[in-house]
Amino acid sequence: MDRIDKLLSNNGGLSRADAKLYIKNGRIKVNGAVVKDPGLKVSDSDEILVDGKAINTAKYRYFMLNKPEGYISSTEPEPGDNSPNVISLFKSEGIKGLFPVGRLDKDTTGLLIITNDGELGHRLTAPGKHVDKTYLVKVRGELKEDAVSAFEKGFEFKEFTSAPAKLEILDRNDDGTPAGYSTNCEGEVYSAAKVTISEGKFHQVKRMFLKVGCEVVQLKRLSMGKLCLDENLAEGEYRELNVQELEALSR
Ligand code: URA
User: If one looks up domain 132-224 in CATH, what number appears?
Assistant: First the structure.
C-alpha cells in the first residue's frame, strides 16, 4: 500500500506537489470516487483515474525495447557525448526510476530490458550470473570456419578469458562452407553470424571478433536468457513484457 500522492508521482508522471494540487482540484478518482485526502492508501488492485484516464498502478514495470542506434544506455552521463539516453524514449510513461538492464553500445541495436525493478536488474547482470545473450552480427572480412572453435575455446583478454561462446556462421553453401558474403561497391567482403555469449564485458562481442580478424560493423541483440526480441517492434519502439515473458526471465 502506498499513499495516493506518492503513487501519482511514481507512476503517473506528476511531481508530488502537482499530485497534491490535482487531488485538491478533484481531478483524481480512486475506484470511482473523487479523492480528497493526499494520504489515502491505495494498492495495485485499485483503479486510479487522472482526469478520467487510468494509470498503471503496478509498482514494478518491465519493458522490452528495440534499442535504436545512436542512443546510450549507460546510467551515468558519458563525458563529451550528448547523445540521448534510451530512458528518454520512455518519458511519456511518467514512471520514476526506470533503468536499462545491462548495457548496449551506442551503435548496437536490439533487445534491451527497461525496468524500475532493481532486484531483477541485479539478478540478470550481477557478476557470476551467466545469462545467455544472442547477437546477430555483421562483420567486415571473411569469417572462417575455424572461428567457431576459437569462440568455443575462449579468448584471452587483458582482464578476463572469455567463457565458451557459440558462433554460428550464417549463409552456408550446401557443402557447409560459408557463403553469402556480401560485398560493397569497393569489393569489401562482409560476413554474417549469430553469436551467443554468457558474459557481458565491455565491448565483448566486438573484441571477440577482432580476435579472429573481423571488425563488427553491425550488432543487434536478439535475445537475453529465454526472452526474445519481438520482431514487430521497430527500432525505438517498446512494449510491456507479458506474464510469460516475465516468468521466463525470472527462471
Ligand atoms: N558486445 C559489444 O561489443 N557491444 C554491445 O553493445 C554488446 C555486446
Answer: 3.30.70.1560
